[in-house]
Design goal:
The protein is built from ten helices and seven strands. The protein is of the alpha+beta class and 289 residues long. Strand 3 (109-115), helix 3 and strand 4 form a beta-alpha-beta unit.
Length: 289
Amino acid sequence: MLKRLPFLCAALLALAACSHDSDTGSAARQAAPTATSSAEAVPASTATSGTAPATAGSAAAAAAPAATTSGAPAPAVAAAPFVDDGKWVEGKNYFRIDPAQPTSHPGKIEVTEVFSYGCPACNGFHSTADQIARSLPPNAVMNYLAASFRPDENWPMYQRAFYAAQALDLVGKTHDAMFDAVWKSGELSTYDLKASGLKPRSAWPTIEDAAKFYAKYGVDPKEFVGVANSFTVNTKMKRADDLMKAYGVDSTPTMIVNGKYRFTASSAGGYAQSIELTQWLVAKEAAGK
């Protein structure tokens, strides 16, 4: 679903993954002269200064399932045989999660994207995540885990909106459209897409604004807000934060395979390589290697 974005967004996508301590506002200004297309950009973690994010929960409570699958069922893809020719190196291209985390789909290999609608790098990676989902064989399933570690960029609101939409069975209809609402039309953007940097906090989108967006898909805005503020969604948000910590995720987007392996587009070597590495790790799991 790659679509043309405003210049600021392209600069953001070209620079880096969204990390715990990155300052994506200043990063956009620094990257503007050399911005590349999102299809070519390779996100990588940064270490620039920024507001320290809050992370909820302890790793001990992190055995929660990742977000459920979104999107229409993809056509069946034949499972690839596992061949280890030395191309993918543990500790360089991908990293083992220790201890491995439980998964929520018995009999399936889970592929999870850790993301935020408010993350510019996730928007740049989104079409690749869609390709990954379509490329999975029948023995694998795609999940999404919404992160909240950048409260200074309104990520907890986006996380709450995602889990409310999930509870109302709306994610499959709205996942792509939410990225567009944040990064194309700007109706749910925390950034000023016509200028540089964040909007004033008073202009940040709220869960009520998100409810108006989801109303286009048949849900009553008051019902959406009620679900978004429910104990169930609060619990899902807490468990998602705990699970992200247990995975060792420090930037988005990050891919997780079956609760055992973690990688980013940067460690994989690019967007196309992320698809290939996902397929290889799924085959590795299927082969019991």
